[in-house]
From TrEMBL:
PROSITE patterns per UniProt: CB, TYR_RECOMBINASE
Protein name: Site-specific recombinase, phage integrase family
Organism: Tenacibaculum finnmarkense genomovar ulcerans
MF terms (GO), sorted A to Z: DNA binding
Keywords for the protein's UniProt record, in alphabetical order: DNA integration, DNA recombination, DNA-binding
Biological classification of the source: Bacteria, Pseudomonadati, Bacteroidota, Flavobacteriia, Flavobacteriales
Length: 392
């Protein structure tokens, strides 16, 4: 049999050079594989030797060697390398596979009410965009070990600079990358969380659009005529400051009209805490009419055209109907559905209601969060400082 060729004549693969038998004085199987721990990219392909034990029958020895070569090449083709330490094997799982594993776990958490469906929707979107970026930059086949600071910086730069997204969007992606990375570290797909090395981009103040009374009344009047159940939902957002996804999880039993309150249970609340909100007198009658034929076990606003019912409402439906309403009334695109809540908070503060009470109604995590809604024109100078005779 003719001796096999030297490695110089072998066509190199990206991560390995296939194994071959060399029948010299000492029979050896030679192959080159990627050493992932080598920092110099020009030296990552390293040679490995495997001695073929002597046998009385040359034919049997050659057959045995070919079997080893075939097995080695099969393993090399699927990404195996002899330089991986046993406790680090998960580092070389394909990144796309890890993304899919992560999303499956998030789906299970949503099914068990441990996470909100909005969270799953956002995470799917983040990962979809990351996958598209990896494909576009020829990284589809990379391993989770390649998920490093440099790659993530490149992705975030694309999001912020090339796509011209806001600082808030950049920071949201960075926050997600941090969540995913910490999950991967805990499950030994990664060794370190590098995200603390990437800084957030400074955000400007959040722009909030206040819907003036005239426009608000026009919206409520139109909806009361065309979709009274949805009108009640929008009014409840304005008066009770309840969030979109929370509305889809509230039950009729959570509304206690005689006490003038709505209980937002932990399983429905964004912050996973059970809290009470007050129903203003201006909303009581609308809710009483909305609930007149409802059962306590019904959803407060269901998929049955927002009426109380047994089918859970998709949060997106709330926004979709709002957009149609806004277009029909020819209002500015800056009037978002959540502008109702922003307007409610601002109006409560303008009425002089103590900030702590507004904070509790909005279920903010701190007074400072509520104070961000304070219109500057209602702020006044501190009297004892204003009148102080400081020049003495």
């Amino acid at each position: 049999m003719q001796k096999s060729q030297t490695s110089k004549n072998i066509i190199p693969f990206i991560d390995y050079v296939p194994a071959e038998l060399r029948e010299n004085n000492r029979w050896e199987i030679i192959f080159y594989a990627k050493d992932p721990y080598e920092t110099n990219p020009t030296k990552q392909l390293k040679r490995k030797r495997h001695r073929v034990k002597p046998m009385p029958n040359i034919r049997e020895r050659r057959k045995h060697a070919k079997h080893i070569v075939a097995n080695l090449n099969k393993k090399l083709q699927i990404g195996w390398t002899p330089f991986i330490q046993d406790d680090n094997t998960k580092l070389f799982t394909k990144l796309f596979d890890v993304f899919d594993i992560y999303i499956r776990q998030i789906e299970q958490q949503v099914d068990k009410d441990s996470l909100r469906s909005d969270t799953l929707r956002a995470y799917r979107s983040y990962i979809s965009n990351m996958k598209a970026f990896m494909i576009e930059t020829n990284r589809k086949e990379c391993f989770i070990v390649d998920f490093k600071e440099g790659l993530c910086r490149e992705f975030l730069d694309m999001i912020f600079y090339e796509r011209n997204n806001s600082a808030r969007t950049h920071n949201n992606y960075l926050a997600f990358i941090g969540v995913f990375t910490r999950w991967a570290v805990k499950r030994r797909y990664l060794k370190v969380d590098f995200t603390s090395l990437i800084s957030k981009i400074k955000q400007g103040d959040k722009k909030r659009t206040i819907i003036p009374k005239e426009a608000r009344e026009q919206i409520f009047n139109y909806l009361t005529e065309t979709n009274p159940a949805y009108a009640t939902l929008c009014k409840a957002a304005f008066y009770c400051l309840i969030r979109r996804t929370e509305f889809t999880k509230l039950k009729v039993a959570d509304v206690i009209l005689k006490n003038g309150i709505i209980n937002v249970p932990a399983e429905a609340s964004k912050n996973r805490k059970s809290q009470i909100v007050t129903i203003p007198l201006e909303l009581i009658n609308d809710l009483a009419i909305h609930l007149r034929t409802a059962n306590n076990t019904d959803y407060l606003f269901s998929a049955d055209d927002f009426k109380p019912g047994i089918a859970i409402l998709n949060p997106k439906k709330i926004s979709d109907v709002w957009i149609k309403t806004r277009k029909h009334l020819k209002f500015n695109d800056t009037y978002h559905w959540y502008s109702l809540k922003d307007t409610g908070i601002t109006n409560y503060l303008q009425l002089g209601i103590p900030t702590i009470d507004v904070k509790n109604q909005a279920r903010h995590y701190s007074i400072s969060q509520t104070e961000q809604y304070l219109p500057k024109h209602i702020l006044k100078a501190v009297g004892n400082i204003q009148s102080a005779k400081l020049n003495f």
